Amino acid sequence: MTSKTSSNITKKFIKKISEKKNLAISEINEQWQAAISKKVLFREYTDKSGFLRKKTFQNVVSDMTGIKLIETYTNIDQAKQELFVNLIPIRYVKKYQFIPYHFEGNTIVYAVSNLWPADPYEKATLDLGFESFSLVLDTAENILERINQIYDRNSGTAEEAAEVLEGDEDLNYLNEFSSEETEDLLDVEDEEPIKKLMNSILFQSVKDSSSDIHIDPSTQETTVRYRIDGILHQITKVPKQAHIPLVNRIKVMAGLDISTKNQAQDGRTMILLAGRKIDIRVSIIPTIHGERAVMRLLNQSKGIISLENLGMNSEIVAQVEDIIHQPHGIILVTGPTGSGKTTTLYSALNKINAQEKNIVTIEDPVEYRIAAYGQMQVNEKVGVTFSKGLRAMLRQDPDVIMVGEMRDTETAQIAIQASLTGHLVLSTVHTNDSISTIIRLIDMGIEPFLVTSTLSAILAQRLIRKICPHCKEPISVPWEELKKLNFQKIINKGEYSGQLWHGCGCEKCLNTGYSGRTGIYELLILNDQLRKVVQKSADSTQIKQVTLEQKMKTLQYDCAQKVLEGITTIDEMLRVVYSDQNSQEAGNNKKL
Q1: How far apart are CA 456 and CA 526, in angstroms?
Q2: φ and ψ at 69, to 5 degrees?
Q3: Which among 177, 203, 267, 379 could disulfide-bond with 384, CB atoms 3.0 to 4.6 Å apart, if both were Cys?
Q4: What HEC string does 221-254 produce?
């Protein structure tokens, strides 16, 4: 292909993107040149920055070439698929990102992420004894997920792997392990029982979409639990004699000291699963029954989720987008640990053009790695704290600053000063709702006039479980039951059909009736009236009265809407956002 031909194809490609995304060609050209300067693929660069998703990229390729872009994988000949798995090494298919999609006589149809070069597909076809091949398109992420499924050498569950250890009298030799963890778990054929158990625990955890793994010792045995959709589920039990080798395995993976048994340790590691990077934060503490380990999994391949896909309604999305484009001010996201605050901050940041603005972040740890941002990680061992890192960042000529958490007064004061000097600051605080966040800042020693002059908005949030779509079914709920929860404030009795939904439980959702989570939100925007009240008095009752007059939609309101829409259940609403106190407050709220 000549350079002139290549240039023409590039121009056509950029023009197609411009038409599909309704973007200026000059804007796409800037992204193209930025990718070249950083020596990365255009689609990888734009996907990480959120400018252009891989699915959109492949759509454009499909339009230009006429090659089908697939949506799902249909059932294919299992014997031929098994032949492919046995003859074509996993490293080869991961390197070139292709997988069988269909078999048609002597022709193999491959799902590929790259149409060129075709040599790897031709070689695999010959090795398998087929005469020819054809191609369909898919994203690399979906192909790697498919590889995950059909090259499942770790198909045995963590429970099955744990059973191998039953009756094993001599586990001492397993105390020492290699710290090299760059191999893909699907490539590992190691037969050491503890290593196999650890790999199975990690593999099943990723497959079940769990956020945390708990290794809990007791007198007789060790329990392994996963947190799935915010709820802990027991997965297996491990013999007591395997506990120390198992924890040592975790320590070596995370670069921790295996000889230290009587003090807390924190570390991190990374694993590969079918080419997907899974970042893992490790916390180990001593208990009376032995060391307890908790591993938090952060799937880097998922990318940044849009505000709409987080579960925000269109009204809040529009308000957040307006606020995020202000030149200065403080935006706080509040909620308990594990409620998705950092994800929301990155979704909001993704609305800002990182080419025009200098965006810097300081976090503990950095959960999303974005090439266009300057990201600093807290490391208290060498003196990099939130407050010191924030001071250093102010010398980097930032436009937007994201602080992982306002943990102390000093950090809050620096953030206030940054806002006063013309910076937009985003951060998180651990409070129950938006109103208590204002009180918390004042309790931290921030003067009320500084709070009101810098704080733009507070977004409170929770995560609720969604009804499993595979076992979702309607149920009858009397209107009187809804009235107890003040549903009459958002819907008239005559509009209620008498029907809600729940999940009856199936294999797909581990018989819980729920699958996945979504957010519920409460956005408090500080206007002049509210600022006057805060400056006069830091009394939560008065602040709450003003928000009620302004008809601010609470967490309870948003959750109730999702109950009526069939997204979640009343039981989940009661678990996450409701209490007797909330019920009393809701009775005074014109919007629930």
Answers
A1: 6
A2: -100, 115
A3: 379
A4: EEEEEEEECCEEEEEEEEEHHHHHHHHHHHHHHC
% helix / strand / coil in the chain, to the nearest 5? 45, 25, 35
Six-digit token string for 499: 């029907």
Q: Is the pLDDT of residue 290 over 80?
A: yes
Model pLDDT, residue 523: 94
Specify the amino acid at residue 579.
S
The 231-239 sheet, strands edge to edge:
231-239, 221-228, 212-217, 290-299, 276-287, 265-273
Per-residue model confidence as pLDDT tens digits over 241-285: 889 999 999 999 898 999 888 999 988 888 877 567 788 999 999
pLDDT by residue (tens digit) across 52-61?
777 777 877 8
Q: Which two tokens stand for residue 296?
A: 């938090």
Q: How many CA atoms lie within 13 A of 64 on its CB side?
A: 19
Task: Give backbone dihedrals phi and psi of 513, rounded to 5 degrees, phi first.
Answer: 85, 0
| pLDDT of 178 | 33
**Comparing 127-136, 361-370, 408-417, 561-570, which segment has the lowest mean pLDDT?**
361-370
Least reliable range by pLDDT among 293-297, 320-324, 385-389, 522-526? 385-389
- Residues 309, 312, 313, 314, Cα dihedral to 10°: -70
The 10s digit of each residue's pLDDT in 232-251 is: 998 888 888 889 999 999 99
How many whole angstroms separate alpha carbon 501 and alpha carbon 360?
44
47, 73, 50: which is closest to 58 by C-alpha? 47
Residue 475: other Cβ atoms inside 10 A: 12
Which SS3 state, helix, strand or coil, does residue 542 take?
helix
- Residue 262 CB-density burial (10 A; 0-12 exposed, 13-18 middle, 19+ buried): exposed
DSSP string, 502-529: EE---GGGTTSSEEEEEEEEEEEE--HH
**Mean pLDDT across 427-455:** 90
CB 424 within 8 A of CB 360: no
Q: How far apart are CA 408 and CA 355, in angstroms?
A: 32
C-alpha dist (Å) from residue 249 to 179, 212, 309: 9, 17, 37
CA angle 179, 183, 184 (to 5 degrees): 135
- CA–CA distance, 571 with 592 (Å, rounded to integer): 17
Q: What angle do CA 525, 528, 532 make, to 5 degrees?
A: 110
Q: What is the 3-state secondary structure (H, E, C) of 154-174?
A: CCCCHHHHHHHCCCCCCCHHH
The first and second tokens of residue 386, run together, are: 């939130």
Q: Using CA atoms, how far apart are residues 313 and 558, in angstroms rounded to an integer?
A: 9
Read off the amino acid at residue 331. Answer: I
